[in-house]
Amino acid sequence: MAADELMPTHKSHRPPKSGPTMEKKSENDKKKRGVSDNKQQNPKAFSFTSAAKAKILKLHAAEKEQKRIHLPTIDRNYGDPPPFVVVVQGSPGVGKSLLIKSLVKHFTHQNVPEVRGPITIVQGSKNRIQFVECPNDINGMVDCAKVADLAILLIDGSYGFEMETFEFLNIMQVHGFPKVMGVLTHLDKFNDVKKLRKTKKRLTHRFWTEIYKGAKLFYLSGLIHGKYSKLEVDKLSCFISLSLTKFHPLKWRTSHPYVLADRIEDVSPPEKVQMDKKCERNISLYGYLRGCNLKKGMKVHIAGVGDYSLAGVTALPDPCPLPSAAKKKGLRDREKLFYAPMSGIGDLLYDKDAVYININDHLVQYSKADDEIGDPTNKGKGRDVGEDLVKSLQNTKYSVDEKLGKTFINLFGKKTISTSSERKLEEESSESGDDETEDCVMDVESSDGKTKQKNEIHGGRLRRKAIFKDEVGDSDAMGSDQDDVEGEEDVESDGDESEDEEDDSASDSQDLDEDDVQEAEDKVLGNISKWKEPLKEKGREKKPNLMQIVYGASRSSATTPLLNETHAISDDDEESDAEDFFKPKGEQSKNLGGAINVGYVNADDCSRFVNYGNLKNWKEKEDCEIIRNRFTTGDWSKAALRNQNSVPGDEGEELYGDFEDLEAENVESGTNQNKDSEVVERRLTKKLALREKFDANNPIYSEAKELGYVDKVSKCFCHLFAVVCSLYVLFQLKEELETRKQMNMLELNDLDEDTRIEVEGFRTGTYLRLEIHNVPCEMVEFFDPCHPVLIGGIDYGEDNAGYMQARLKKHRWHKKVLKTRDPIIVSIGWRRYQTVPVYAIEDRNDRHRMLKYTPEHMHCLATFWGPLVPPNTGFVAFQNLSSNQAEFRIIATSVVLEYNHQARIAKKIKLVGHPCKIKKKTAFIKDMFTSDLEIARFEGSSVRTVSGIRGHVKKAGKNMLDNNAQEGIARCTFEDQIKMSDIVFLKAWPTVEVPQFYNPLTTALQPRERTWRGMRTFWELRRQHNISIPINKDSLYKPIERKIKKFNPLVISKKLQEELPFASKPKNKPGRKRPSLDARRAVVMEPGERRALAIVQQLKLMNKVKMIKRKAKEQEKRKAYEAEKAKEEVISKKRNREERRERYRTEDKQKNKKMRRNQD
Amino acid sequence: MGKTTYKRLKGSQSFRQRLLLSTLSSTPIIIDEIRADDMIPGLLRHEMSLLRLFETVSDDCVVEVNETGTRLKYKPGIIMGGKNLVHNCALTRSMGYYLEPLLLLGLFGKKPLSIRLRGVTDDPKDPSVDTFRNASLHILKRFGVPSEGLDLKIEARGVAPEGGGEVVLTVPNVQTLTAVQWVEEGMVKRIRGWTFSARVSSDFEHSMRFAARGIFNNLLPDVHIFNDHKSGPQAGKSPGYGITLVAETIEGCYISADTTVSCGRTDETGEVDEEKQERKPAEDTGVEIASWLLQEIEKGGVVDSTHQGLLFILCALCQQDVSKVRVGPLSPYGVETLRNLKEFLGVTFSFRPDPSTSTVVLTCVGSGLVNLSRKLS
C-alpha cells in the first residue's frame, strides 16, 4: 500500500469518445445490434409540404425514368461480329504506340516493332480487337472517331489535358459517342506524392465533367525497362475486354456499311504504271465489314479521296478467325492470332486467288502456334518450314469451312454440304483463273437439287424454256437435245415419284457428300448426262430455277429485244395449270394470246394480266369442289394443311429421318443445328412464359380502367401503373424485335450461301477485298499506313448534292463568332468537305431571317450546299486544320434538320425615298428605286412614312409626270395625304442565295503533314492582300446637327378675329409716340423711407457675404470628409475580402468534412 | 461527283416503276429508244401525264424529253407531297395507271399527300378505283402504313373515252415500312362487290350483280354487291358500267377482280381498238368477272395477280428484315417488277415454289429505305 502511495498514480485508461476510430467502433457496434443508421435526422425537413411540389417532383422523377429508357433497336448482325475497333488517341509523345505494343504483348505474347495501321488480335474465345493508333492531325482524328468502338484517351499527367483530347471528345460526341476510357501517363515525373494525388484528382474531375461522372480514368504510373508495368497493363486490358461486351448501337453506323482497311494494294497493271506514272490506279482494299450488310453495286466513299463505285467485292477467308471450339475457358497459345499487314507482321496474306506466305526467321514461332486441328505436329520443326506453313494454312481454311457449315441452323442437310462442296469446286476452278467458268460451275452445283425436283413434277418442259430465254444466239437443235435428255431423266426419276422434294434433295446431297472433291465433281457430272459435257465446256449449262428465270433473263432482255425468240417458244399448248407456276405467266400468255411479251423493251406498262379465254365454268359443281377448301364453307382441316406444307418447321421433321445414312460429320452438324433450333425454341418459350406473366400483371390495370377505379385510386398508384405499363410496352417491343431477328435468321439460313449473299449482301464481320478502279495515283503515292483508311458505304441519294438545313451552335471554346458565307470545313457522315454556310434564325412568323454572324451562345440555323445526309446526322465544323494551332480547332457542332432543294432564307432591306410631287393621297416617290423595272418588281408592296401613314406602291410614275422623264419614280397611294418633308420607307424581304459550293477534302491525295488548303475566309484574304475592312460612310454615327427652325409670326385671319370672343381678340391699339404717363413720372422718396431702404440694402448685403463664407466652409469640410471616407473604404474592402475568404474556406472545409462523413 | 451519272435504260417497258424507283432511290435515269420504231414514236399522252404528276408531287425534279419523245432524261427531286394538289390525268389510261406509283410515292414524301385526280376512273386495262379503295389500300396497311389518312374518295365516275371522273387520294407519310411474314392465305370468308353505272340505265348493274352472285352460290353465302348508280355531273362524260369484286379471307388477304364496259377510245391514229367493238351482255360480264375472281382464288397467294407488283415493291422497300410472301403464279408484271427492283434497289428475291399448292414463296431482305425528306422537329 505504501508503495502504492509512494508511486505516482497512473492515469487511468480513458476510452476515446470521439475521433475516427471511435466512429468506426460505434458503427460496428450498431451493426452488431442490427440498428440501421439510415434514419434521417430531421425527417420532416424532407417530406413534402405542398401537393403541387410533390407532383412536380414526381413528374420529374418519371421523366428521368423515361429518359433512361431507350427505344430498343434490332441487331442485324447474324454471324461472328467483326473485331472491335479500339482507337488509342493522345497528343504527340504521350505514349500511344507504347500502350498498343504493351497491350498486344499482353494479349498475344508477341512484340510489335512498330505500330502502323490496324492490328487485329484474337482476344478471347468470343471477340477480337483491332487496335488503331490515332494520328495527330485533325483529319485522322475525325476518321478514327467515326470508326471507334472504344476510344482510349491518353493524357500526359505531368502536363495536364491538351486540346487534342477535347477536340477528339467533341468529334466523337457528334459522330455517335462510343465508349471512352482515359489513361493518365507520365506520372513518374512527379516527385511529390501529394502533388501527384492532387493532380490526379483534378484531372479526374475535369474528365468527369467532360464525359460523365464516374467515367473511367486509369493511371499508368510509369515505365519499367521502357515498358508500362505489367500489372497495370493487365488491369487495363481487363477493363478493355469488359467494356467491349455491350454496345449501344450508333444510328449512323448501323445503317451504313463501312470498312476500316487494314491492307491496301496497288493492283493496276504494271505496264500501265510504267508508261505513265501519273495514271489512275486500281487499288484493292482489305478489311472487315462493319455496320450493316454491303450489297453489290453500292457506292463507297473513301475518306480523304472521294466517291467511287466498287469494281469488285470478294469475301476472303478470315485472316484472324475466332477459335472454333466453343466450350473452353481462355485461349490456347496457338489460338492467339495476330494480323497486322501494314505493320509488316502477320505472315499470311489472303487474296482473292492466292495466299501469300511470309517466311521470316523470327516468325517460325508462328508456324508452331498455328497447327490447330488434329494431328500433333510437334515434329513440325524438324520438317520443312514452308511445308509446315502450308499445312497450317490448309488447316485454317478447313476451319473456316467448318464455321460456314455451322452457321446453318437450317435442317437441310444438303445445303451445308453442297455449299462446302461448292467452295471446294470454286477453289478448284479458280485455279484456272477464269471467273466466268467459275461461276458456271457453282451454278451447276447450287441449282442441281432444285432442278431435279422440277423434272420430277413437271416433266422438264419448263427447263427448256428457261434455257431458251437464257441463250442469245444458240440454235434450236440444242432445244431438241434437251428434250431427249429430259425424257431420260424422267425415266430415271419415275421410280421415286412418291418421294417428296426434300427426300430427293437429301439423296442428292448424299451423292454429293464425298470427301474427295474430284469425286464429287464426277458425281455431279454423272448426274448430268454425258451429252452435257460439251455444253459445260461452253459454260452455259445453267439449270433453270425460278430465280434464274426471273433475274437471268432480265440481263438478256435489257440488252437485246427478245421479240423473235419469244415468239418461237409457242409450240406446246397443252400445259396443265400446275405447270405454269414455274415460269412467268407472260410466256403462257404468249402461247395463248401472244399479246404481251415480257422481253420486249417497249412492252405495255400494265399491271393487269387478264385472260378470260381459259376461264373454267365455275357454275359446275365439280369445278367448284377444287377450291371448296379455300372458302370458309369448306373443310377447315384440309385448308390448314395447305398452309402447313410450306412452314419450315415441318420440313425439319422429315429431314431428320435422312440423317442416319449421312457421314458422321454431317450428323454432327445436323445435331448441332438441331441443338441450335432447340435453343431458339427454348428461348422463345421462356419469353412467352415471361410475357404471360406480364400479361397476368397487366390485366389489373385494364380491369381497373374498365371499372373506372383509376380515377378514384390515388394518383401515386396511377403513376406506378404508368411505369409498369411503359415497361410492359418496352418489353413487348424488345420481344418483337427478338422474334423478328430469330425469324430473319431462320429465313436466311434457309438459303444457300450464294443466294444468301445475293439476297442480303455481304454480312458484317466478313473479311472483304474491295477493288476500286481509277483512283488518283496520289493516293498510292502518298499513302501513309499510320493514317486510317476508312471506306464507308453510301445510301440511296446520299451522293446527290443539295441544300441542307442544320441547327448549329458555335462551340463555346471558339473565341470568335462565325460569319455568314465564310467557308467552313465540315465532317458529316463519312465525308469531310468545305462548304459555305449561310446562317439564319427562325422568326415568329416562320420566316428564316439571315444572320450576318452566328449568335454567341444560341443555336441558329445554318444552310449549306453539299452531298445530302439523312436528317438527325450530326457534324462538326472546323476552319483551320493546321496542327500547330494552339487554339481550339472545332468551331461549331451541329445536327442536320432537313434537306431541301431550295433554301428559303430572307434578309431585310429598307428602301428609302422622298416624295417629289403630292396630289392629294397619291404621291410620286423618288430615290427609292433606280429603274422602272425595279418598280415593276415591287408593285403592290406596302410602304409607310415616318409619321406612320401607310400606303402601296402602284406603278412607275413616268407617264404621269409630264415635265421630267426621269426613271425610277414610283406612284404610291397613301391612306392620307403626306407631306413633302416626309420620308417614305419600303421594307422588303428578298431571298438570300446560298452558294452552291462544296469542296471535298482530299487529304489522302497529298503528303499528310501538309495542311490542306481550300477556299479562304474573308479575314484571311484581307490579311493577305492587306485590305482594310470597307466602311460604308452612311453607317457611321455622326453628331446630329439640327437647324434651328425659325417660325413666322402668327397671323390670324380677319374673319377668325371677328368670331373670337372679346378677351381673345387681338386689341387694336394704335401705337403712340410719347410714352405713357406712368412711364414718364419720377418717384421721390421721403427721408424716412430712404433710410429704411438703405438699411434693408445693407442687411441684404451682409447676409449675402455671410452665405458665401458659409458655403466655402462647407465645401472644404465635405472635401475633407470625402477624402477620409475613401481612405476608410479602401481599408474596409481589403479587410472584408480577407474575412470572406477565410469564412468560405472554413465553410468549404466543413462541407467537405460532412460529405466525407456521409460517404463513410 | 459534281457530274450526275445517269442510269441508262431502254424502251418504254415498266415506265411507271422505273420512274417510281428512280425517285425513291434518287437515281437519275436516261431512257433511250422509247418506241423508236413504232408508228407513233416516243412517249404517249399518259406517260407525259405521269411525268407531270411526278413533277407535281415532287420538287426540283428535272425532266427532259427530246423532240421526238424517244429519249427521256429524268433527274428525281425531293418528294414533297402536300395538300390541295390537282392533276388532270390523260384519258388514254385510267386512274389505276397513275394511282399505282402515286400510292408508294406519297408514303415517302415530306408532307402527307392529298391530291385530286381527274380523268377516267375505270377501264378494263387497269385496276379500277374501287379495287384500289377496297384491296390495294389494305395491302399497304399490312406494311405498317397508318390507316388514318389513307383514303381514296370517289367523287365522280368517268369512263373512257371522255372521262370526267374525279377521285381524291390521301396518303400519310411513313418513316419506314415494316417487313411482313405473309404466307397464309386463309379461307375466303366474304365477298364484296361494287357495281357502278354512269350515264346508262341501272338495269345493267342489276343484271351484273345477279349473274355474279349466281356463280358464288355454290361456295359462299356471304356475298354482297353494292350498286352505285350515278347520274348528272357525277356520272362523268361517257356512258359505261363496271363491276369490282373483292374476296376477303380470314387472314386479311384481299383478292380482287374488276372490269368496266364502255365505248372504245379512239387511238392516236384515229382507229378504234378492235377488241372493243363487240360488247357482251351485262350478264356475261358479271359471270366472267366472278369466274375470274374464283380463278384468282384458285391460283392462291396472298394477293391477286394484279397486285403482285405492288406487293413486291413494298417488300423491297421495307427495313432490312426478311419479308416472306406467298403469291400465285408470277405475273409478267410481277416478274418485271422483280427485275426492276434488282436494278434500282439491289433487292434480290429468293423463290421457293410450293408444288402442292402451285404457289411461290418469295423471300427478300428489304432495302432499308428510310423517308429522309421528313423534317426533324
Strand content of chain A: 15-25%
Number of helices of chain A: 35
pLDDT under 50 segments of chain B (min length 5)?
Answer: none
- The strand order across the widest sheet of chain A is 34-27-23-22-24-19-26-25-20-21-35
Percent of residues in helices of chain A comes to 40-55%
**In one word, what is the shape of chain B?**
globular
Q: Output the CATH topology of the domain at 188-267 and 277-299 in chain B.
A: Dihydrodipicolinate Reductase, domain 2
Would you count the extended β strands of chain A for me? 35
Domain RNA 3'-terminal phosphate cyclase (chain B): 9-350
Family (chain B): Belongs to the RNA 3'-terminal cyclase family. Type 2 subfamily.
Main location (chain B): nucleus
Organism (chain B): Brassica campestris (Field mustard)
Summarize the structure.
Chain B: One of its GO terms (cellular component) is nucleolus. The complex is a heterodimer of chains A (1160) and B (377). In chain A, 42% of the residues lie in helices and 16% in strands.
